[in-house]
Amino acid sequence: MKSLIIILLYIVIVDVSGKLYYHQDRIPSDVDVYNQSKVHVIQDSRHQTKYNGYEHLCPDAANIAPCVCTYDWWDNIMDINCSAVESEEQLKQIFKADFPFKNFKKFTFHNNTNMKVLEAGVFNNISFEIIDIKLNSLEVIELEALDSCYERATNIDLRRNRITSFPFDELSHFSKLLNFDISNNLLSSIPADAFNGLTTLETLQVIANGANIVGTFQDLPNLVTIGLTYNDLPTTIPANFINIGSPDLWYIAMNGNGIVSVEPGAFDIVDGLFIDIRDNSISTLDEATWRPYLEAEGWIQASLNPLICGCDIAWLFGEDQLLEHVGEYTTTCADGQYLHDLDPTIFDQC
Ligand SMILES: *[C@@H]1O[C@H](CO)[C@@H](O)[C@H](O)[C@H]1NC(C)=O
Ligand SMILES: *[C@@H]1O[C@H](CO)[C@@H](O)[C@H](O)[C@H]1NC(C)=O
Ligand SMILES: *[C@@H]1O[C@H](CO)[C@@H](O)[C@H](O)[C@H]1NC(C)=O
Ligand SMILES: *[C@@H]1O[C@H](CO)[C@@H](O)[C@H](O)[C@H]1NC(C)=O
To answer: Which of 102, 97, 109 is nearest to 63 (CA)?
Structure first.
């Protein structure tokens, strides 16, 4: 029992001191200014030292109000929340204040109706890993508004603004970007090519803009999810529309786009790929197009389409039972019959 306590104590001490040394090591490398006289970085594993100077990592609160900077000593994370900013000009002034450390983890800007434009250079070399700019009234994101984050941003979340203008061509500068979400905005056009070559990108969401998606998606070797729901995709999805070379591609959402047909080879063939084509104007599930995905254990969701359900879909009722991979038992033919309830023998003469 005694030795167990000693072992536990040892684990706690090692863990705590590990954290402290981690902390001490990390500040100089993670931030661009290391001013020992300003920030009394933790020197030992004594618990009380953890408060030493930690508040000085943030700029003076009065200089950045109404933005609020918070520093989490334990994880060595500095965040800033500027949700209450009153104007473009005010935000610009705030980032001209003295920032002892310039690299934040997260920038939060939520529920703000005061700003329409995120202006070029507004962040004045202050950078963020997570850019969380949701639920505001922003209309324009100017070129180089986020330039300070090219080398650090992993997440850019711009959901639910009123964005009509975004500098898509600038995306190629974000060398660590994992997740990009500009869903629920008012873009009229989204250039697919702007994403090409984003080798780190894992999630791309451009849902519900009603936008023309111009071009094709190529060379996104780590992409897992692509959300194109409720836009204005081409009525015929061409071959190589999503030809990105990602072995991890798992989910393509294209529902609600007015799609009439999908050409063979429209998407990469990846095992287990889930393709959502609900709520379009597709009248037939062409074998040449869809068999390769279903044979690779993929799934298609096809409800809310005017499927004719003639000999064109007989292949789904063959011995390989591919119908099982047409998800949603509520999928109906144009006449209202459930696809999964059709009697397979009606296809015998096909
Ligand atoms: C470090 O901070 C102190 C106190 O704010 C200041 O007087 C000093 O000039 C700073 N040193 C550097 C190298 O920035
Ligand atoms: C950000 O600040 C606003 C008010 O300024 C507050 O309502 C909100 O809860 C804060 N959000 C976070 C994530 O801290
Ligand atoms: C934004 O405001 C709405 C309603 O005022 C509130 O329900 C929501 O929690 C707020 N969201 C954030 C992220 O602050
Ligand atoms: C931002 O940083 C770059 C490189 O470190 C420097 O050349 C530039 O002058 C800085 N800009 C501002 C506005 O501080």
So the answer is: 97
